[in-house]
Amino acid sequence: MSVLEAVTDSSAVRARLDDDRTIAWLFVAPALVLLGLVAIYPFAMMIYNSLFDFTQAGRMDEFVGLANYVRVLTDGRFTSGAVFTVGFVLVVVTAEFLLGLGMSLLIYSEFVKRRQIWVVLSLPPMMLSPVVTGLTWRMLLTPEYGMVNHLLGIEVAWLASRPWSAVAVVVADVWMWTPLFVLVFTATIQSIPAVYYEAARVDGMSRWQQFKWVTLPQMRTAIAIVLLLRVVRAFKVFPKIQVLTLGGPGSYTESIAMVTYNYGFRFFDLGRANAAGVLYWLLMFVAAYLIFRSVAEDLISPGGEG
Amino acid sequence: MGRDTNSRGRVGRRSYLRAVGAGATAAGLAGCVGNLTGGGSGEPGGQVDDTANPTGSYEGVELNFATSSNYIDAWNDLASQFSEQSGIEVEVTSYAQSEMLTQLLNQFRAQEASFDAFISDVIWTGSFMQPGFAEDLGPYFDSPLANADYDYDDHLTVFAENYGQWNGTRYGLPWYGDVMKLSVRKDVLEEHADAYESEHDESIMPEMFGGYESYAKYNRVAQFMHDQGWDMGLEGQRGWNIVYYYPNRFAAETGEASMLDDDGNSRLDAEGATTALQHYIDQVEWARNPLSTGYTQSRDQFLDGNTWAVEQWGTATAQFIDEWGWEEGVRVSLTPGGYPNLGGWGVLLNTYSNQEVKDAAFLFAQWATSKEMDKYAFTEHGVTPTRRSSFTDEIKEEYPQARYQDPEENPGIEQLSLRPRNPSYQELGDTMQVQISDALSGNTGAAETMQSIHDEWESIMSENE
Amino acid sequence: MAVDLEGASNYSRLLTRGAVGVVLALWLAWIWGPLVWDFFTGLSANPQTTPPTLLPDEFTFEHYRNVVVEEGMPVYIRNSVVVTAVATGVSVVVGALAAYALTRYDPGDGQVSFFILSMRFLPPIAVAIPIYMMFVGVGWINTWRVLIIAYLPIGIPISTWIMLIFFQRIPMELEEASRVDGWSRIQTWRRVVLPLAAPGISSAAILTAILMWNEYVLALVLTTTQSAQTIPIYLAGFVTTRGILWGRMGAATIIAITPIVILAFLAQERLVAGFTLE
C-alpha cells in the first residue's frame, strides 16, 4: 500500500486519481498483468505451437498448419475422452448437488442439534488431494483385499470392468466433492432470515412450498457459484482416474486431460499436445460460458446492490 | 540429430514472431529447447595421472545418480560403498517407476539434467540413446578409465545388446538381467496329475526348464484346473503389464522375438498375433480376478496360495521359491512356448554432464556392474545377474532362481520376446495395452483388436520416422 | 429457520427423528470410513489380508518411519509449504485489490470479472504445456518459482471471486460516510473496508491454499526431482509397477492431510463464513 500512498500524496496526480475509474483500473491492473503474463501469453504460445511439428527430443521442427488438429480430432482416444469427460461432469455434479442439498436440508431440519458440528464433520474429503482420494478408493475397491466387496459380499471388478470402473470414478468424486455443496448450502440456509418462514407459514404454505418459494430462491447465488466452480473443476479430472483405473478398461474411463497429458509427456509429441490443449480449452470454455451466461445476473451485482 | 531441421524450424518461428511484434521475447523462448551442447570438454580419462589407479584422480568429485525407487536400497548401498572406497561422492536420487522416464526426459529437454548417471529400463533405452541424451561409452573403454578386468563380453549377449547398445554403439552397461518365468504349484498339480493325464493323454507338469511347449497346452491345463477349483494368475488390468504378457504369447505363436521387423514394420497382422491374443482372452475365464490384477496382485495371489500358476519377473519368482520351496511346492520354468519377455536395466551416462563428472560416473558404473558387484547385488539385493561368471555352483545352490539365467543350464534363456525398443515405444505400448485391455474385458474380439493395433502401429511408426 | 411438523403425532415425530439419525450415521460412515481405513492401513503390519479387516492384527509405526526417514517426506512437505504459501500470498493480495475495485467501480462493466474468472476455465494441462515450454529453455523447470508462477492462474481467479462475493456485501455507505468524515481513500480502505473484509480474505486464502496444496498436474509436469516436488507427486509415486505399498501410503496420506484438515478445522468458522451469502 505504501507505493500507492506515495502516489496519492503527490498532489499533481491526485486529481486524476480521484477519478474512480482510474483508481479501479489501478487496483485491477496487477491481476490483469499477472494473468496476462502467466495465462494469456502461454495460452497464445500454445495456439502458436500447435501449428508446428516437434521432434521427440522436444525441438520445434516444421510448420504443419492444422495437421496436429486433424490428428487429434481423428484420434478415437481424444474424442472418446471428451465424451467421457462431459458425461462424467454431468453425472458427478448432478449427484453431488442432489446429495449435498439433501444433506444440508437434513442437517438444518428441526431434528438435528449442534448443526455446526455436523457440517464440520462433513468437510474433510474436499480438502484432500485427488491423488489421496484415488489411492484411498483404490484400496477400498480392490477386489481381493478391498473392503467394499467384502462388506457387500459381492465380487465386482470395480476398477477394471464396464460399467463399474466408471461407477468407481464417480463414487470417488462424489465422496470427495459433496462436502463442498454441504458447506455452501448449509451456510446459505443458515443465513435465511427466520421471518421469511414465519411469513410463509402465515400464508399457509406447505413444507414443499416453503422450500420452493423461500429456501430455493434465497440459495440461487450460492447454487450458481458452486455449480460453476464444480463444473470447471470436474472438467479437469485427471489424477483421481489415473490412480484408480489408469483410464481402463481399454480407454473407457480416460478423461480429456489424461489424453492431452499423454500426447505431451508420454508420447513426447508436443505439437499434438498443444493442439489437444487448445481443443480442450475450447470445450471447457464453451461449457463454462453457457453456465456463466445463465447465472450471470446472480453473480455480477456491482456496486453492492445485493 | 536433425540439427538442420531444427534450425530451419527456429528461423521460421523467429521471423514469424517478429512479424507479429513479439521478436524480443521470442529469442528467449525460441524453439522450446535450444541446441543442446555437451557441457565440459576434453577426452574421457584426460585427467588420469596414474593409469594403475584412475579413481585416485577423481577424489572429491561429486556425482548424482538417478534410479527408480524400486531399487533405491540397492543403489544407496552401492553408492555408499563406492564413495567410501574411491572418494568420489555419489548421491542417489530416486524416481517413481511410473514417472521416471517422463521426469528424466523433461530434464534432458531442459538441458538441466540433475543427474550424471542413471538406470534405464530396457524399453526406455531408445528414448535416451536415439536422441543422443546418453553418452557413447566407446571412447571410455579405450581410455585409461577402463578396467582391464571388467570383461564386457562376460555379460550375456542379449543383456549387453538390449540394455546397452543402439545401432551397434555401446551406451550402457547391463545391470539387472530379468526375464519372465512361469511358476506353478508343483504340489497342487501332482494331486491332479492322474485325472488330467487320463483325460488328455499328456503330462500336467511343465518341463523343469523348458516349461509347457505352447500356450495351447497351458490353456488346457488351466481350464482343467479351473474345473478342479484352482484359478491361474493372470494380469489383465490396463497397464504396462499387458505389454509383458502379450509378447510372451505373440512370440510363442509366431516364432518372432520382436513385434516389429528390422524396418520398423508391424508384424501384428500375422495370424499368430491373433491366436496369441485369443489365448490371452480365453484365460480370463480360468483366472482369478484377471481384469483387476496388476503386478503385485498376481504375485500376492500366488504367495497367498490362491492360484496354481503365474507368469512373473525374477524378484517375484525368488519370493515364490522362498515361500513354497524350489521343486517342492513350486516349479519354475520358461513361459509356455519358450519366448519369455525380456525386462531388465542398464546404467547410462548423461552426455550433458561435464567431462570430469562423466569420467567419475563411468568409474562408478563400471564398478557397479563389475563381476564382483554383479554377484553382490544379487545375493544382497536380489538384483538378478547379467554376467555368466555370476552363475557359480555355490550361488546356484543357494539361489535356485539363478539357474534359469544360466545359459549352460537353461539354453532357452537366450531366446526371448522383446518389446519394441525404440523412442515410439511409449505410444506403441500404450495403444497395445489399451486395446488389449478392451479385448480382455470382452468389449472387442481378438481379430479386430489385432488389426486395429496393427494399423495404429503402422501409423505411429510412419508419423514418428 | 427450522420448520416443525404441524399436527404430527409424537409417534411419527419419533419415527422421523430415528430415520434422520440413521441417515446421519450413514453419512458419517460414508465420509469418515475411507479416512479411518487409511489411518489403520498406515498402522498395520500386514495391510493386505483376505478377507480384509479394519483393525490391524498387528500394529506398527514402521510405515511412518519409512516415509519420514527413508523416503524423506519432510522435503516434499517443505516444498509444498513454500510454494503454497508464496503463491497463495500473491494471489490473495492481487485478488483483494481486484475484487475491491470490481465491486466498487466495476471498470469494464462485468467483462473484467468474467475475464478473471475465465482463467479458471484454462485446463491445467493447457497451462502446463506452454509454461513448461517457456521455462524449459531458461532452466527454471524443477524450481519453486516455476510452480509459484504456474499456480497464479489458479490462485488469482479463485481468490478474486471469493472476495468479490465478500466485498459486495460491505455496504458502500460506510465508505461514503468515512469519506465525508474527511478520511482519505487509503484510510478508508484500512480502517473500514479491510476489517470488514478480513473474514472474506482469510477464507479466500484458505480455499486457495487447499487448491494449491493438492495440485497435481502442474507439479507433475514442471518438477522432476525431490528438491522441488510437492506432496501429491510423492503420494502418486506409491502406485509403482512393483506394486502399491499400501502401508506406507496410508501413513503418508495421514501425514499429508493432517495439516490441511487441522487448518480447516481451526478456521472453519471463517471457511463457512466465506460462503455465507446474504
From TrEMBL, chain A:
Where it sits in the cell: the answer is: Cell membrane
Quote the CDD domains the UniProt record gives. TM_PBP2 (cd06261)
Q: Which PROSITE patterns match?
A: ABC_TM1
> Membrane-spanning regions, if any?
23-44, 82-108, 117-137, 174-197, 273-292
Record key words, sorted? Cell membrane, Membrane, Transmembrane, Transmembrane helix, Transport
Provide the Gene Ontology terms for cellular component.
plasma membrane
For this UniProt entry, what is the primary localization, expressed as one broad class? membrane
| Sequence ranges assigned to domain ABC transmembrane type-1 in this UniProt record | 82-291
Query: Which family does the similarity line name?
Result: Belongs to the binding-protein-dependent transport system permease family.
UniProt-recorded name of the protein: Binding-protein-dependent transport systems inner membrane component
Question: Native species of this protein?
Answer: Candidatus Halobonum tyrrellensis G22
UniProtKB/TrEMBL annotation, chain C:
Q: Which UniProt keywords apply?
A: Cell membrane, Membrane, Transmembrane, Transmembrane helix, Transport
Q: Where are the transmembrane segments?
A: 14-33, 81-102, 114-141, 147-167, 188-210, 216-237, 249-267
Tell me which InterPro entries the record gives. Answer: BP-dep_ABC_trans_perm, MetI-like, MetI-like_sf
Q: What organism does the UniProt record list as the source?
A: Candidatus Halobonum tyrrellensis G22
Kindly name one Pfam family recorded for this protein: BPD_transp_1
Entry protein name: Putative ABC transporter permease protein yurM
Q: Under the cellular component aspect of Gene Ontology, which terms does the record hold?
A: plasma membrane
Q: How does it sit in the membrane?
A: Multi-pass membrane protein
Q: Give the top-rank taxon of the lineage listed in the UniProt record for this protein.
A: Archaea
Principal location listed in the UniProt entry: membrane
Q: Does the keyword RNA-binding apply?
A: no
Cite the ABC transmembrane type-1 domain residue spans from the record. 77-267
Q: Does the keyword Transmembrane helix apply?
A: yes
Biological process (GO) annotations held by this record are: transmembrane transport
Localized where? Cell membrane
What's this protein's family per the entry?
Answer: Belongs to the binding-protein-dependent transport system permease family.
